[in-house]
Amino acid sequence: MPKPEVRDVLLQVISECAPKRPGDSNLQSRSILTEVRDRLGGARDHVLEEAILTAFHDLLRTGYLAWGFNLANPDPPFFHLTEQGRKSLANLSRDPSNPAGYLASLSQAVTLNSIADAYLREALACFVNDLPKASAVMVGGASESIALELRDAVVGKLQSMNRNVPRGMDDWRLKVVLDAMYSFLDQNSGQMKKELRDSFRSYWSAFLQQIRTARNDAGHPSSVDPVTFDTVHASLLIFPELAKLTFDLLQWINHEYK
Length: 258
Hints:
There is one protein chain. The protein has ten helices and three strands. The chain is mainly α. Strands 1-3-2 form a three-stranded antiparallel β-sheet.
C-alpha cells in the first residue's frame, strides 16, 4: 500500500473521530489504527500494519499528534491533536499535510510540467517530515519553474509573430525576468477577459512574492529560524492558486493574444 494513501486514510479517520465538543469520545490509538486497517482492507497484512504504525508515529514525531487526553489520562493509548494538527485537518482534502489529497485537488485544476511536479512533490515530502526550510526552497523552485514556463510561451509567441521580445525577458536573473513579464502582461491585459485581468492584477505578484520570500529566507538566512511551519504552510496553500492563474495566462498567450 503506497505510504501517501495510508497517511491520507489515517488523517481522515482521525478527523472523523476527533472530539468536536466537550463530552465527545476521546482518541485512542488501538481503535483508530484498527479502523484505518479495516478501511484499507488489510486484515492479517503485516506489511500494511507496519505502514499504518509508521504513518501514525510520523504524525506524533512531527507534531501533529501528542500522547494523552488530559492530565488525568496523560499516557498512551490516549492521544490528541495539537494546534498544528487541528490547522491541518481544517482543510484536510487539500492541505499539504495530506500530500495525496493535496495533489489530487491540484490535478483537478492544472497539470504541472515535470520539473514543477518533481519539486512540489519533494516540497510536500519535506513538509510532512518537519523540514520547513527545505520545503520552502522546493516550493519556490516549483513556482519558478511554472513562471519560466509562462515566460517561454510569451517569448515563443512573440517570435512567431515577428515581434521584439521585451528587454529583460531573457535575463538570467529571475527577478528581472518576472518584472519584465509583469510589465508585458499588464500592458496587454486589455486583451484579457475581465476575470483573468482582475486575477492577474490582484494576485500574480503577491503569490510569487510570498513564495519567493520564504524561499530566499530559507536559502539566505539572516536568523536562526527564518522559516516557520506557518510560513511554508501558507506557501504550499498559495501554490495551487498560482499554478491555476499561470495556466490561465498560458492559455491566453497561446490562444487569444494578438
